[in-house]
Amino acid sequence: MLQRGRSFIQLPGPTNIPDRVLAAMHRPVVDFAGREFTRMTRGCLEDLKQVFQTRGEVFPYVALGHGMWEVVLDNLLALGDAVLVPDTGRFSASWCEMIRAQGIELVTTSPFYRESVDPAAVEEALRADRGHRIKAVLMVQVETSTGVLHDVAAVRRAIDAAGHPALLVVDAVASLATVDLPMDAWGVDAAITASQKGLMMPPGMGFVAVGPRARQAALANTAPRKYWDWGSRRGEESYMWFYGTPPLQMIWGLRAALDMLLEEGMPAVFARHARLAEAARRAVAHWSEAGALEFQALAPAARSNAVTAVRFTQGDPEAVRLHCRDELQVAFGGGLGPFQGHILRIGHMGDLNEPMLLGALAVLETGLRRLDVPHRPGGVTAAVEWLATQR
Ligand SMILES: *Cc1c(COP(=O)(O)O)cnc(C)c1O
User: Fold this and answer.
1) What is the mean pLDDT of residues 6-11?
2) Which of 22, 61, 163, 175 could serve as 141's disulfide partner, Cβ 3.0–4.6 Å?
3) DSSP letters of 176-220?
4) Taking residues 156-180, what's their average pLDDT?
């Protein structure tokens, strides 16, 4: 089909890359060992601490979020250790696959696919671990497959209430720079992210922020490792921070993305995500009144500002998604794993504004109408009415 104008990416990753980031990357290679490039790279790692809201260290990798999952396992755990992973959906499940493959013992909870993890389930699992074999609780803050926001601070309190020494590690791939994660204030020992979501960059870089307790645990961990090892990635040269050639263009892009985030200010970044997410939710709530659609996340507080997952009790979300993508030039997320065929996901993270979101919502309403999915017309107007109150 002939397509004109801009196609919209309304995926929960990868997200829109700002022109400013793309332009910053369009440069020939320089000698990365030069003083200027080294200084800029160090500056990026320093500024990332502001985004992670930590005084800990940030380690960069040329890797995906999947790589960051393995980074925390390799640095913090040894064969025979156990971890507790609350079952939140497709992404916690993928992390668990990696944990099992590495011979680490896995303790999990009952599923929390439509609500935030119950801190009591975490506390109970930790109390049952009298010998303290569980070395870490690994949780996903925004579970991108369900759109559910999980309460990191509540899980920290549950660990403390159980009197358990386990570290708290957070997958913030979908949540960093989209929803608040004050790492130090909430007692998070390590957090991971990837470049292609809230950081508005191409896929291909990963970051892990490490607090003092996790650093100590890594130092004490004798499990064999090298490439991912935080201990290998130190020194004066950016070559060592990457344990190999720094990805120059990505770092220029990162510099531009961090400038954009810090110019806007992290509180304003979170407020923008909250405003646009609420507009999407107003539309979904309105459409849902006809009885065929509902929020995957049951409680309003569990609906993340990064992605909204819409359950179809009638009609085919995949047909709507493909129609919107192939005929109307807006790409939404589909259902992953057990949610496939049941869910359509509206990503609203990263470099997004009102016209982009309203355009996408209007296309989704068009798709619902064309494919005869029962919905109350006027969801876009409901979003407009909400946005009109926000100035
Ligand atoms: C996207 C995502 C990942 C995976 O990131 P990749 O870079 O694709 O490996 C992991 N966790 C969450 C919560 C995500 O949203």
Assistant:
1) 96
2) 175
3) TTTS---TTTTT-SEEEEETTSTT---S--EEEEE-HHHHHHHHH
4) 98
To test the pocket of ligand 1, the residue of 70, 91, 142, 179 to mutate (highest count of ligand atoms within 8 Å of its CB) is 91
pTM, entire model: 0.98
**What would the two tokens of residue 13 be?**
């990753």
Tokens 């390590």 found at: 190
- 101/67 Cα distance (integer angstroms): 14
345 is in an annotated binding site: yes
Q: Which fold has domain 8-15+266-388?
A: Aspartate Aminotransferase, domain 1 (3.90.1150)
Whether 340 has a pLDDT exceeding 80, the answer reads yes
Q: What is the pLDDT of residue 2?
A: 80
On the question of pLDDT at 106 being above 90, the answer is: yes
The first and second tokens of residue 183, run together, are 């790492």
Ligand 1 atom index nearest CA of 196: 7
Please compute Rg for the chain using Cα positions: 21
Length of the chain: 391
Does any ligand 1 atom lie closer than 6 A to the CB of residue 66?
yes
Q: How far is CA 219 from CA 19, 65, 226, in A?
A: 41, 23, 13
Domain parsing of the chain, residue ranges: 8-15+266-388, 21-262
